[in-house]
C-alpha cells in the first residue's frame, strides 16, 4: 500500500505544480498613438493638397498634370522628338531648384549646380526621384510636391522646415543608359 500512496502523492504534487507563469506588464500600451499620427498625417496631406489646388487655380498660364506619385507638374520645355524617359540605373545629368509656394528661393539652380544622378540608386528626396522618371532629355518641368514627397516631417535639417510643401523646376539635360543594357 505504501508504494501506492507514494504514487498518488507524487501524482498530486506533479499536477499541483504548474509551470512558471509569465509576469504581466505593469503598463499596457495601446495602438491609439499610431492612430493619432495617421489621422494627423491625413489632415496635413489634405490641407497641403488644398494649398496646391489653390496655387494651380491661381496659375492660369500653365496646364498642370498630376503624376501617379502625387505631385503636380507642368512642362516649360517639352521634347516631342523622343519617347525615352529615365529608367532605373540610367545616369541622368540635370539641374533643379527648390522654392517655397510664396516664390521664395530655398536652393537655387546655381547653388545646387549640375548633378549626375543614377536613377533610383542615389539619395534624393522622394518627389524628385519620381519626377526624374517622367522627363525626357532636354525637357524642363516645374513640380509641386506636398511635404510627404518633399522633405517630410524632418525637413532637410537646414533650410526646408518641417512639413513644408515645395516647388522644384527640373531640367534634364542627358540620359545615359547603362553599358550592359546597350550591348544586349
What is the fold's blueprint, element by element?
Layout: H1 2-16, H2 32-58, E1 65-66, E2 72-77, E3 91-96, E4 98-99, E5 105-107, H3 109-112, E6 115-118, H4 126-132, E7 139-145, E8 166-176, H5 179-183
Antiparallel strand pairs: 1-2, 2-7, 3-6, 3-8, 4-5, 7-8
Notable characteristics:
elongated, 184 residues, 32% helix, 22% strand, alpha+beta, two-stranded antiparallel ribbon, six-stranded antiparallel beta sheet, 5 helices
Describe the structure.
The protein is of the alpha+beta class. The chain has one domain: Chitinase A, domain 3 (Roll). 32% of the residues lie in helices and 22% in strands. The protein contains five helices and eight strands, in the order H-H-E-E-E-E-E-H-E-H-E-E-H. The strands form two sheets. Strands 1-2-7-8-3-6 form a six-stranded antiparallel β-sheet, covered by helices on one side. The radius of gyration is 29 Å and the shape is elongated. It starts with a helix and ends with a helix. The model has no long low-confidence stretch (mean pLDDT 88).
Q: What is this entry, summarized?
A:
With 184 residues, the protein is an alpha+beta fold.
Enumerate the spans where pLDDT stays under 50 for 5 or more consecutive residues.
Answer: none
The helix-and-strand class reads alpha+beta
Please tell me the total number of domains.
1
Strand order of the largest sheet: 1-2-7-8-3-6
Number of helices: 5
Listing every helix as H and every strand as E from the N terminus to the C terminus, the arrangement reads HHEEEEEHEHEEH
CA radius of gyration is 29 Å
Mean pLDDT: 88
Strand content: 15-25%
User: What is the helix fraction of residues, given as a range?
Assistant: 25-40%
Tally of DSSP β-strands: 8
Major sheet characteristics: 6 strands, antiparallel
CATH topology descriptor: Chitinase A, domain 3
CA-CA gap between termini: 89 Å
Looking at the overall shape, the CATH architecture is: Roll
Please identify the top-level CATH class.
Answer: Alpha Beta
Amino acid at each position: 500500500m505504501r508504494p501506492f500512496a507514494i504514487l498518488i502523492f507524487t501524482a498530486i504534487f506533479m499536477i499541483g505544480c504548474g509551470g512558471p507563469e509569465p509576469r504581466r506588464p505593469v503598463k499596457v500600451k495601446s495602438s491609439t498613438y499610431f492612430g493619432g499620427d495617421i489621422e494627423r498625417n491625413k489632415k496635413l496631406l489634405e490641407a497641403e493638397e488644398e494649398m496646391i489646388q489653390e496655387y494651380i487655380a491661381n496659375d492660369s498660364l500653365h496646364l498642370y498634370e498630376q503624376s501617379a506619385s502625387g505631385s503636380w507638374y507642368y512642362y516649360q520645355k517639352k521634347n516631342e522628338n523622343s519617347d525615352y524617359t529615365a529608367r532605373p540605373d540610367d545616369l541622368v545629368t540635370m539641374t533643379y531648384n527648390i522654392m517655397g509656394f510664396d516664390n521664395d528661393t530655398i536652393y537655387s539652380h546655381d547653388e545646387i549646380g549640375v548633378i549626375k544622378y543614377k536613377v533610383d540608386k542615389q539619395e534624393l528626396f522622394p518627389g524628385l526621384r519620381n519626377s526624374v522618371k517622367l522627363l525626357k532629355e532636354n525637357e524642363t518641368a516645374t513640380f509641386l510636391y506636398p511635404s510627404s514627397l518633399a522633405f517630410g516631417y524632418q525637413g532637410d535639417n537646414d533650410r526646408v522646415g518641417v512639413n513644408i510643401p515645395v516647388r522644384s523646376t527640373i531640367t534634364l539635360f542627358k540620359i545615359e543608359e547603362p553599358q550592359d543594357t546597350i550591348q544586349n
